[in-house]
Amino acid sequence: MATPTLDKDVSRQTSSLQYLPDASARADDASPNQFLMPLNAKVSDRDTLEIGGCDVPELVKKFGSPLYILDEQNLRKTCQQYRNALSNLYGGESLVIYASKAWSCTAICAIAHSEGIGMDVVSGGELHTALQAGVPSEKIYLHGNNKSVEELALAVEKGCTIIADNWFDLHNLVGLKPASPVRVMLRLTPGIECHTHEYIRTGHIDSKFGFDPTQVEEVFDFVTQQDCISVIGIHAHIGSQIFELQPHGDLGDVLVSWFKKAQDRGLPVAELNVGGGLGIRYTEQDDPPSIHEWIEVVTRSVTAACEKYQVALPKLICEPGRSLVGSSCVTAYKVGSKKTVPGIRNYISVDGGMSDNPRPITYQSLYRSVVANRMSATFSETVTVAGKHCESGDVVIPDAKLPPLETDDVLVVLATGAYNASMASNYNRVPRPAAILVNDGEANVILRRETTEDLLRGDCLPTRLQG
Ligand SMILES: *Cc1c(COP(=O)(O)O)cnc(C)c1O
Phi/psi at 199 (nearest 5 deg)? Predict the structure, then answer.
Protein backbone atom coordinates (compact mmCIF):
# COMPACT_ATOMS: atom_id res chain seq x y z
CA MET A 1 0.00 0.00 0.00
CA ALA A 2 1.47 3.35 -1.06
CA THR A 3 1.49 5.93 1.69
CA PRO A 4 2.82 9.47 1.47
CA THR A 5 6.14 10.24 3.10
CA LEU A 6 5.47 13.67 4.51
CA ASP A 7 8.15 14.91 6.90
CA LYS A 8 6.51 15.35 10.29
CA ASP A 9 9.26 17.60 11.55
CA VAL A 10 7.92 21.04 10.67
CA SER A 11 11.35 22.59 11.16
CA ARG A 12 12.61 20.65 8.14
CA GLN A 13 9.85 21.98 5.92
CA THR A 14 11.35 24.71 3.88
CA SER A 15 8.86 25.75 1.20
CA SER A 16 5.34 25.19 -0.14
CA LEU A 17 6.73 22.44 -2.37
CA GLN A 18 6.90 20.09 0.60
CA TYR A 19 3.14 19.87 0.83
CA LEU A 20 2.78 18.71 -2.78
CA PRO A 21 1.82 15.05 -3.18
CA ASP A 22 4.93 12.84 -3.39
CA ALA A 23 5.53 10.01 -5.88
CA SER A 24 3.23 7.66 -3.90
CA ALA A 25 0.28 9.77 -5.09
CA ARG A 26 0.68 8.26 -8.56
CA ALA A 27 -0.03 4.73 -7.33
CA ASP A 28 -3.46 3.38 -8.24
CA ASP A 29 -4.23 2.70 -4.62
CA ALA A 30 -3.12 6.11 -3.32
CA SER A 31 -5.77 7.11 -0.78
CA PRO A 32 -6.70 10.79 -1.25
CA ASN A 33 -7.56 11.27 2.44
CA GLN A 34 -3.89 10.72 3.32
CA PHE A 35 -2.66 13.65 1.23
CA LEU A 36 -2.77 17.36 1.95
CA MET A 37 -3.61 18.23 -1.64
CA PRO A 38 -5.44 16.68 -4.56
CA LEU A 39 -3.27 13.90 -6.01
CA ASN A 40 -2.64 15.73 -9.28
CA ALA A 41 -1.55 19.03 -7.67
CA LYS A 42 1.85 20.19 -8.91
CA VAL A 43 4.12 23.14 -9.37
CA SER A 44 4.23 24.70 -12.85
CA ASP A 45 7.37 25.87 -14.59
CA ARG A 46 6.33 29.41 -13.53
CA ASP A 47 6.67 28.32 -9.88
CA THR A 48 2.89 28.49 -9.40
CA LEU A 49 0.49 25.93 -7.96
CA GLU A 50 -1.48 23.93 -10.49
CA ILE A 51 -4.57 21.90 -9.59
CA GLY A 52 -6.61 19.92 -12.07
CA GLY A 53 -4.38 21.33 -14.80
CA CYS A 54 -5.36 24.91 -13.87
CA ASP A 55 -3.00 27.62 -12.67
CA VAL A 56 -4.27 28.73 -9.25
CA PRO A 57 -3.16 32.41 -9.39
CA GLU A 58 -4.86 32.64 -12.81
CA LEU A 59 -8.03 31.13 -11.37
CA VAL A 60 -8.05 33.79 -8.67
CA LYS A 61 -7.60 36.50 -11.31
CA LYS A 62 -10.52 35.13 -13.26
CA PHE A 63 -12.95 34.08 -10.50
CA GLY A 64 -11.92 36.31 -7.57
CA SER A 65 -11.15 35.36 -3.99
CA PRO A 66 -11.74 33.71 -1.63
CA LEU A 67 -12.24 30.80 -3.97
CA TYR A 68 -13.01 27.15 -3.28
CA ILE A 69 -11.21 25.06 -5.90
CA LEU A 70 -12.51 21.51 -6.17
CA ASP A 71 -10.60 18.88 -8.12
CA GLU A 72 -13.02 16.62 -10.00
CA GLN A 73 -10.60 13.75 -10.67
CA ASN A 74 -9.62 13.57 -7.02
CA LEU A 75 -13.27 13.52 -5.96
CA ARG A 76 -14.09 10.79 -8.47
CA LYS A 77 -11.09 8.73 -7.44
CA THR A 78 -12.17 8.95 -3.80
CA CYS A 79 -15.70 7.83 -4.67
CA GLN A 80 -14.30 4.92 -6.71
CA GLN A 81 -11.99 3.82 -3.92
CA TYR A 82 -14.83 3.67 -1.44
CA ARG A 83 -17.14 1.87 -3.84
CA ASN A 84 -14.53 -0.60 -5.11
CA ALA A 85 -13.12 -1.38 -1.67
CA LEU A 86 -16.57 -2.05 -0.28
CA SER A 87 -17.72 -4.24 -3.15
CA ASN A 88 -14.41 -6.13 -3.34
CA LEU A 89 -13.99 -6.76 0.37
CA TYR A 90 -17.57 -7.53 1.35
CA GLY A 91 -19.32 -10.74 0.46
CA GLY A 92 -22.81 -9.29 0.35
CA GLU A 93 -24.61 -6.41 -1.31
CA SER A 94 -23.31 -2.95 -0.43
CA LEU A 95 -23.79 0.77 -0.97
CA VAL A 96 -21.66 3.81 -0.20
CA ILE A 97 -23.72 6.89 0.60
CA TYR A 98 -22.24 10.38 0.79
CA ALA A 99 -22.97 12.25 4.03
CA SER A 100 -23.80 15.35 2.04
CA LYS A 101 -23.75 17.68 5.03
CA ALA A 102 -19.96 17.74 4.49
CA TRP A 103 -20.65 19.80 1.36
CA SER A 104 -24.08 19.72 -0.18
CA CYS A 105 -24.33 21.31 -3.60
CA THR A 106 -25.84 20.08 -6.84
CA ALA A 107 -22.58 19.49 -8.72
CA ILE A 108 -20.94 17.47 -5.94
CA CYS A 109 -24.05 15.34 -5.43
CA ALA A 110 -24.26 14.80 -9.20
CA ILE A 111 -20.61 13.69 -9.40
CA ALA A 112 -21.00 11.33 -6.44
CA HIS A 113 -24.20 9.94 -7.96
CA SER A 114 -22.50 9.35 -11.30
CA GLU A 115 -19.90 7.28 -9.41
CA GLY A 116 -22.64 5.06 -7.98
CA ILE A 117 -22.78 6.72 -4.58
CA GLY A 118 -26.08 7.22 -2.71
CA MET A 119 -26.88 10.18 -0.47
CA ASP A 120 -27.39 10.81 3.22
CA VAL A 121 -29.30 14.03 3.87
CA VAL A 122 -30.24 15.70 7.14
CA SER A 123 -32.69 18.39 6.08
CA GLY A 124 -35.26 19.33 3.48
CA GLY A 125 -32.61 21.52 1.82
CA GLU A 126 -30.11 18.70 1.47
CA LEU A 127 -32.90 16.41 0.27
CA HIS A 128 -33.93 18.89 -2.44
CA THR A 129 -30.27 19.22 -3.48
CA ALA A 130 -29.85 15.45 -3.83
CA LEU A 131 -33.07 15.19 -5.87
CA GLN A 132 -32.03 18.13 -8.05
CA ALA A 133 -28.72 16.33 -8.70
CA GLY A 134 -30.66 13.33 -10.01
CA VAL A 135 -30.09 10.97 -7.10
CA PRO A 136 -32.95 8.42 -7.10
CA SER A 137 -34.95 8.33 -3.87
CA GLU A 138 -34.10 4.62 -3.32
CA LYS A 139 -30.56 5.81 -2.66
CA ILE A 140 -31.46 8.71 -0.35
CA TYR A 141 -31.49 8.31 3.44
CA LEU A 142 -32.92 11.04 5.71
CA HIS A 143 -31.13 11.58 9.00
CA GLY A 144 -31.56 14.09 11.80
CA ASN A 145 -32.31 14.22 15.51
CA ASN A 146 -35.11 16.75 15.05
CA LYS A 147 -36.69 16.28 11.66
CA SER A 148 -39.68 18.51 11.08
CA VAL A 149 -42.97 16.93 10.08
CA GLU A 150 -42.60 18.71 6.72
CA GLU A 151 -39.15 17.19 6.15
CA LEU A 152 -40.43 13.74 7.07
CA ALA A 153 -43.46 14.13 4.84
CA LEU A 154 -41.31 15.22 1.89
CA ALA A 155 -38.94 12.26 2.32
CA VAL A 156 -41.86 9.83 2.67
CA GLU A 157 -43.63 11.27 -0.36
CA LYS A 158 -40.46 10.94 -2.46
CA GLY A 159 -39.85 7.38 -1.28
CA CYS A 160 -36.60 7.91 0.67
CA THR A 161 -35.50 5.77 3.58
CA ILE A 162 -35.96 7.39 7.00
CA ILE A 163 -33.35 6.90 9.69
CA ALA A 164 -35.47 7.11 12.84
CA ASP A 165 -33.38 8.81 15.49
CA ASN A 166 -35.91 8.88 18.34
CA TRP A 167 -39.53 8.43 19.45
CA PHE A 168 -40.46 11.82 18.00
CA ASP A 169 -39.60 10.48 14.52
CA LEU A 170 -41.56 7.25 15.02
CA HIS A 171 -44.66 9.04 16.33
CA ASN A 172 -44.50 11.65 13.57
CA LEU A 173 -44.18 8.91 10.95
CA VAL A 174 -47.27 7.17 12.30
CA GLY A 175 -49.02 10.55 12.40
CA LEU A 176 -48.38 11.02 8.69
CA LYS A 177 -50.56 7.93 8.00
CA PRO A 178 -48.51 6.92 4.94
CA ALA A 179 -50.45 4.89 2.37
CA SER A 180 -47.74 2.24 2.12
CA PRO A 181 -45.12 1.12 4.66
CA VAL A 182 -42.17 3.50 4.99
CA ARG A 183 -38.64 2.09 4.85
CA VAL A 184 -37.12 2.90 8.24
CA MET A 185 -33.70 2.27 9.73
CA LEU A 186 -33.27 2.61 13.48
CA ARG A 187 -30.33 4.68 14.69
CA LEU A 188 -28.91 3.31 17.91
CA THR A 189 -26.21 4.73 20.16
CA PRO A 190 -23.60 2.00 20.34
CA GLY A 191 -21.74 3.23 23.43
CA ILE A 192 -18.42 3.31 21.60
CA GLU A 193 -15.98 6.07 22.47
CA CYS A 194 -13.51 7.48 20.01
CA HIS A 195 -10.78 10.06 20.31
CA THR A 196 -11.89 13.11 18.43
CA HIS A 197 -13.19 16.57 19.28
CA GLU A 198 -16.12 16.33 21.72
CA TYR A 199 -18.41 18.30 19.36
CA ILE A 200 -18.07 15.61 16.71
CA ARG A 201 -18.31 12.50 18.88
CA THR A 202 -21.64 10.79 18.49
CA GLY A 203 -21.24 7.16 19.52
CA HIS A 204 -21.01 7.60 23.28
CA ILE A 205 -24.07 6.96 25.43
CA ASP A 206 -24.52 10.62 26.42
CA SER A 207 -25.22 11.69 22.83
CA LYS A 208 -28.17 13.63 21.43
CA PHE A 209 -28.31 11.18 18.51
CA GLY A 210 -30.03 7.83 18.31
CA PHE A 211 -32.00 5.54 20.59
CA ASP A 212 -30.35 4.58 23.83
CA PRO A 213 -29.56 0.83 23.96
CA THR A 214 -31.83 0.43 27.01
CA GLN A 215 -34.80 1.43 24.82
CA VAL A 216 -34.22 -1.06 22.05
CA GLU A 217 -36.75 -3.66 23.21
CA GLU A 218 -39.42 -1.02 23.68
CA VAL A 219 -38.72 0.36 20.21
CA PHE A 220 -38.99 -3.11 18.70
CA ASP A 221 -42.32 -3.62 20.54
CA PHE A 222 -43.64 -0.38 19.10
CA VAL A 223 -42.56 -0.82 15.50
CA THR A 224 -43.83 -4.39 15.26
CA GLN A 225 -47.30 -2.98 15.94
CA GLN A 226 -47.14 -0.30 13.21
CA ASP A 227 -48.26 -1.36 9.74
CA CYS A 228 -46.91 1.85 8.22
CA ILE A 229 -43.35 1.31 9.46
CA SER A 230 -41.12 -1.28 7.89
CA VAL A 231 -37.85 -1.52 9.82
CA ILE A 232 -35.37 -2.53 7.14
CA GLY A 233 -32.16 -1.91 9.01
CA ILE A 234 -30.03 -0.73 11.88
CA HIS A 235 -27.70 2.28 11.88
CA ALA A 236 -24.98 3.78 14.05
CA HIS A 237 -22.46 6.57 13.52
CA ILE A 238 -19.74 7.04 16.09
CA GLY A 239 -18.11 10.34 15.24
CA SER A 240 -15.94 12.22 12.80
CA GLN A 241 -12.24 12.79 11.95
CA ILE A 242 -11.35 9.43 13.55
CA PHE A 243 -7.83 8.04 13.01
CA GLU A 244 -8.21 4.86 15.05
CA LEU A 245 -9.52 1.72 13.41
CA GLN A 246 -10.55 0.03 16.65
CA PRO A 247 -13.91 1.82 17.15
CA HIS A 248 -15.16 0.63 13.76
CA GLY A 249 -13.68 -2.80 14.47
CA ASP A 250 -15.84 -2.91 17.61
CA LEU A 251 -18.95 -1.51 15.97
CA GLY A 252 -19.70 -4.57 13.82
CA ASP A 253 -20.45 -6.80 16.80
CA VAL A 254 -22.69 -4.24 18.51
CA LEU A 255 -24.67 -3.51 15.33
CA VAL A 256 -25.07 -7.11 14.24
CA SER A 257 -26.20 -8.13 17.75
CA TRP A 258 -29.05 -5.61 17.44
CA PHE A 259 -29.71 -6.69 13.88
CA LYS A 260 -30.10 -10.25 15.11
CA LYS A 261 -32.48 -9.14 17.88
CA ALA A 262 -34.57 -7.26 15.33
CA GLN A 263 -34.66 -10.29 13.08
CA ASP A 264 -35.71 -12.52 15.98
CA ARG A 265 -38.57 -10.11 16.63
CA GLY A 266 -39.74 -10.67 13.06
CA LEU A 267 -38.68 -7.28 11.70
CA PRO A 268 -37.76 -7.33 7.98
CA VAL A 269 -34.20 -6.08 8.56
CA ALA A 270 -31.85 -6.43 5.59
CA GLU A 271 -29.47 -3.44 5.81
CA LEU A 272 -26.73 -2.45 8.20
CA ASN A 273 -25.33 1.08 8.17
CA VAL A 274 -22.02 1.68 9.98
CA GLY A 275 -21.93 5.46 9.49
CA GLY A 276 -18.86 7.41 8.44
CA GLY A 277 -16.09 9.12 10.36
CA LEU A 278 -12.79 8.27 8.65
CA GLY A 279 -10.35 11.13 9.17
CA ILE A 280 -8.31 13.06 6.63
CA ARG A 281 -4.89 14.70 6.71
CA TYR A 282 -4.97 18.41 7.54
CA THR A 283 -1.37 18.72 8.73
CA GLU A 284 1.82 16.66 8.53
CA GLN A 285 1.01 15.37 12.04
CA ASP A 286 -2.21 13.67 10.89
CA ASP A 287 -1.95 10.03 9.95
CA PRO A 288 -5.34 8.71 8.93
CA PRO A 289 -5.77 5.12 7.74
CA SER A 290 -6.40 4.69 4.02
CA ILE A 291 -9.92 4.21 2.68
CA HIS A 292 -9.04 0.61 1.87
CA GLU A 293 -7.80 -0.08 5.41
CA TRP A 294 -10.94 1.45 6.91
CA ILE A 295 -13.28 -0.57 4.69
CA GLU A 296 -11.25 -3.69 5.46
CA VAL A 297 -11.80 -3.24 9.20
CA VAL A 298 -15.50 -2.48 8.74
CA THR A 299 -16.19 -5.44 6.47
CA ARG A 300 -14.13 -7.85 8.56
CA SER A 301 -15.89 -6.86 11.75
CA VAL A 302 -19.38 -7.07 10.23
CA THR A 303 -18.61 -10.39 8.53
CA ALA A 304 -17.20 -11.92 11.72
CA ALA A 305 -20.20 -10.74 13.73
CA CYS A 306 -22.64 -12.19 11.18
CA GLU A 307 -20.92 -15.54 11.56
CA LYS A 308 -21.03 -15.28 15.34
CA TYR A 309 -24.75 -14.39 15.46
CA GLN A 310 -25.64 -16.70 12.57
CA VAL A 311 -27.25 -14.13 10.33
CA ALA A 312 -26.95 -13.85 6.55
CA LEU A 313 -24.79 -10.94 5.38
CA PRO A 314 -27.02 -7.85 5.28
CA LYS A 315 -26.67 -5.11 2.68
CA LEU A 316 -23.78 -3.10 4.10
CA ILE A 317 -23.90 0.68 3.93
CA CYS A 318 -21.24 3.18 4.94
CA GLU A 319 -21.67 6.92 4.81
CA PRO A 320 -18.44 8.91 4.57
CA GLY A 321 -18.66 12.69 4.44
CA ARG A 322 -15.37 14.38 5.28
CA SER A 323 -13.14 11.70 3.76
CA LEU A 324 -15.17 11.64 0.55
CA VAL A 325 -14.83 15.33 -0.29
CA GLY A 326 -12.38 16.95 2.17
CA SER A 327 -9.09 16.33 0.39
CA SER A 328 -10.39 17.33 -3.04
CA CYS A 329 -10.65 21.05 -2.36
CA VAL A 330 -8.44 23.99 -1.40
CA THR A 331 -9.35 27.60 -0.62
CA ALA A 332 -7.43 30.41 -2.30
CA TYR A 333 -7.25 33.79 -0.55
CA LYS A 334 -5.49 37.03 -1.33
CA VAL A 335 -3.16 38.47 1.27
CA GLY A 336 -4.09 41.97 2.45
CA SER A 337 -2.88 43.79 5.55
CA LYS A 338 0.07 42.93 7.78
CA LYS A 339 0.78 43.72 11.40
CA THR A 340 3.83 43.16 13.57
CA VAL A 341 3.56 43.09 17.34
CA PRO A 342 7.26 43.53 18.19
CA GLY A 343 8.72 40.52 19.95
CA ILE A 344 5.35 38.75 20.00
CA ARG A 345 3.77 37.91 16.70
CA ASN A 346 3.47 38.76 13.02
CA TYR A 347 0.00 38.79 11.52
CA ILE A 348 -1.03 38.69 7.93
CA SER A 349 -4.69 38.95 7.01
CA VAL A 350 -6.52 37.26 4.17
CA ASP A 351 -9.76 38.28 2.46
CA GLY A 352 -11.87 35.57 4.10
CA GLY A 353 -11.79 33.61 7.33
CA MET A 354 -14.40 32.22 9.69
CA SER A 355 -17.22 32.99 7.24
CA ASP A 356 -15.84 30.58 4.62
CA ASN A 357 -14.06 28.24 7.06
CA PRO A 358 -15.59 28.13 10.53
CA ARG A 359 -13.64 25.02 11.60
CA PRO A 360 -10.68 26.77 13.29
CA ILE A 361 -12.92 28.91 15.49
CA THR A 362 -15.37 26.06 16.14
CA TYR A 363 -13.04 23.11 16.72
CA GLN A 364 -9.59 24.73 16.98
CA SER A 365 -8.80 22.86 13.75
CA LEU A 366 -5.36 23.24 12.21
CA TYR A 367 -4.61 23.75 8.54
CA ARG A 368 -1.60 24.10 6.29
CA SER A 369 -1.15 26.60 3.49
CA VAL A 370 1.03 27.26 0.46
CA VAL A 371 1.84 30.39 -1.52
CA ALA A 372 0.41 29.65 -4.95
CA ASN A 373 2.35 32.32 -6.83
CA ARG A 374 5.77 31.52 -5.32
CA MET A 375 5.80 27.85 -4.52
CA SER A 376 9.54 27.48 -4.00
CA ALA A 377 9.96 30.61 -1.80
CA THR A 378 11.76 29.66 1.40
CA PHE A 379 9.73 29.41 4.60
CA SER A 380 11.67 31.91 6.68
CA GLU A 381 8.93 33.37 8.88
CA THR A 382 6.38 32.30 11.41
CA VAL A 383 3.20 34.28 10.91
CA THR A 384 -0.35 34.01 12.11
CA VAL A 385 -2.77 33.99 9.21
CA ALA A 386 -5.79 35.98 10.35
CA GLY A 387 -9.22 36.22 8.78
CA LYS A 388 -10.97 39.52 8.06
CA HIS A 389 -13.80 39.14 10.58
CA CYS A 390 -14.42 41.10 13.73
CA GLU A 391 -13.46 38.36 16.17
CA SER A 392 -9.98 37.96 17.63
CA GLY A 393 -10.54 34.21 17.32
CA ASP A 394 -10.88 34.52 13.55
CA VAL A 395 -7.49 32.98 12.87
CA VAL A 396 -7.14 30.72 9.84
CA ILE A 397 -3.72 29.32 10.84
CA PRO A 398 -1.83 30.21 14.02
CA ASP A 399 1.98 30.28 13.70
CA ALA A 400 2.17 29.23 10.06
CA LYS A 401 5.56 28.63 8.47
CA LEU A 402 5.62 30.84 5.38
CA PRO A 403 7.91 32.94 3.25
CA PRO A 404 7.69 36.74 3.65
CA LEU A 405 4.32 37.60 2.16
CA GLU A 406 3.28 40.58 0.11
CA THR A 407 -0.14 42.08 -0.41
CA ASP A 408 -1.92 40.24 -3.26
CA ASP A 409 0.05 37.03 -2.81
CA VAL A 410 -2.27 34.05 -3.25
CA LEU A 411 -2.39 31.99 -0.08
CA VAL A 412 -3.97 28.58 -0.51
CA VAL A 413 -5.32 26.70 2.51
CA LEU A 414 -5.35 22.94 2.01
CA ALA A 415 -7.97 20.22 2.51
CA THR A 416 -10.99 22.51 2.82
CA GLY A 417 -13.58 20.37 1.02
CA ALA A 418 -15.50 19.24 4.08
CA TYR A 419 -17.45 21.38 6.53
CA ASN A 420 -16.20 24.64 5.00
CA ALA A 421 -18.61 25.73 2.25
CA SER A 422 -21.41 23.82 3.96
CA MET A 423 -20.86 25.67 7.24
CA ALA A 424 -20.12 29.05 5.63
CA SER A 425 -22.00 32.08 6.89
CA ASN A 426 -22.49 35.71 5.99
CA TYR A 427 -20.95 36.96 9.23
CA ASN A 428 -20.10 40.64 8.88
CA ARG A 429 -22.30 40.50 5.79
CA VAL A 430 -19.47 39.08 3.76
CA PRO A 431 -20.70 37.35 0.59
CA ARG A 432 -19.95 33.63 0.47
CA PRO A 433 -17.21 32.62 -2.00
CA ALA A 434 -17.58 31.02 -5.39
CA ALA A 435 -16.61 27.39 -5.88
CA ILE A 436 -15.13 26.14 -9.11
CA LEU A 437 -14.63 22.63 -10.37
CA VAL A 438 -11.31 21.99 -12.11
CA ASN A 439 -10.53 19.07 -14.39
CA ASP A 440 -7.91 18.68 -17.08
CA GLY A 441 -7.28 22.39 -17.52
CA GLU A 442 -10.95 23.35 -17.51
CA ALA A 443 -12.59 25.39 -14.74
CA ASN A 444 -16.36 25.65 -14.21
CA VAL A 445 -18.31 27.54 -11.59
CA ILE A 446 -20.36 25.18 -9.40
CA LEU A 447 -21.33 27.77 -6.80
CA ARG A 448 -21.72 31.37 -7.89
CA ARG A 449 -20.13 34.01 -5.67
CA GLU A 450 -22.76 35.83 -3.63
CA THR A 451 -23.45 39.44 -4.47
CA THR A 452 -24.56 42.42 -2.40
CA GLU A 453 -28.02 41.79 -3.83
CA ASP A 454 -27.98 38.25 -2.45
CA LEU A 455 -27.05 39.63 0.94
CA LEU A 456 -29.94 42.10 0.98
CA ARG A 457 -32.52 39.84 -0.64
CA GLY A 458 -34.18 38.74 2.57
CA ASP A 459 -34.22 42.13 4.26
CA CYS A 460 -37.65 43.71 4.79
CA LEU A 461 -38.29 47.23 5.95
CA PRO A 462 -41.68 47.70 7.67
CA THR A 463 -43.61 50.58 6.12
CA ARG A 464 -43.46 52.65 9.28
CA LEU A 465 -39.64 52.61 9.07
CA GLN A 466 -39.56 53.70 5.47
CA GLY A 467 -38.62 57.31 5.33
C1 LIG B 1 -21.77 13.47 9.86
C2 LIG B 1 -22.27 12.12 9.65
C3 LIG B 1 -21.61 11.25 8.80
C4 LIG B 1 -20.33 11.60 8.11
O5 LIG B 1 -19.29 11.81 8.99
P6 LIG B 1 -17.84 12.12 8.40
O7 LIG B 1 -16.98 12.21 9.58
O8 LIG B 1 -17.94 13.41 7.68
O9 LIG B 1 -17.48 10.99 7.52
C10 LIG B 1 -22.15 10.00 8.59
N11 LIG B 1 -23.30 9.63 9.19
C12 LIG B 1 -23.96 10.44 10.03
C13 LIG B 1 -25.22 9.99 10.65
C14 LIG B 1 -23.48 11.71 10.29
O15 LIG B 1 -24.13 12.51 11.12
Answer: -70, -20
Q: How far is the CA of 417 from the centre of ligand 1 (A)?
A: 14
Residue 378, helix vs strand vs coil:
strand
Q: What is the pLDDT of residues 312-326, one digit of tens each?
A: 999 999 999 999 999
Q: What is the CATH number of the domain that holds 293?
A: 3.20.20.10
Q: 160 and 272: one domain?
A: yes
User: Which of 255, 285, 320 marks a domain boundary?
Assistant: 320
One domain for residues 50 and 35: yes
Answer whether the bond into residue 247 is a cis peptide, omega within 30°: no
- Count the domains in the chain: 2
Return the pLDDT at 193. 73
| Half-sphere exposure (Cβ direction) of 393: Cα atoms closer than 13 Å | 11
Q: Judge whether 99 lies within some domain.
A: no
For residues 465 and 241, give the distance between their C-alpha atoms in angstroms, rounded to a whole number.
48
Closest CA to 147 of 124, 128, 131, 129: 124
Distance 99 CA to ligand 1 centre (A): 6
Same domain assignment for residues 245 and 390: no
Range of the domain at 274: 143-320
* pTM over 0.90, yes/no: yes
Whether residue 201 is predicted with pLDDT greater than 70 in this model: the reply is no
3-class secondary structure, 429: helix
346 alpha carbon – ligand 1 mean position (Å): 37
- Cβ 13 vs Cβ 284: under 8 Å: yes
| DSSP tag of 188 | B
Q: Using CA positions, which residue lies closest to atom 10 of ligand 1?
A: 276
If asked whether residues 158 and 286 sit together in one domain, one would say yes
Ligand 1 atom with the smallest distance to the CA of 163 is 13
Instruction: State how far the Cα of 384 lies from the Cα of 394, in Å rounded to an integer.
Output: 11
The minimum-distance atom of ligand 1 relative to the CA of 101 is 1
pLDDT tens-digit profile of 360-376? 999 999 999 999 999 99
Q: Whose CA is nearest to atom 11 of ligand 1?
A: 275
> Which of these three, 320, 336, 371, is where a domain ends?
320
Q: Are residues 352 and 274 in the same domain?
A: no
CA distance 437 to 439: 7
Pocket-testing residue among 117, 161, 188, 237, ligand 1, by greatest number of atoms within 8 A of Cβ: 237
CB distance 397 to 367 below 8 Å: yes
Query: What residues are annotated to the active site?
Result: 390
CATH of the domain at 410: 2.40.37.10
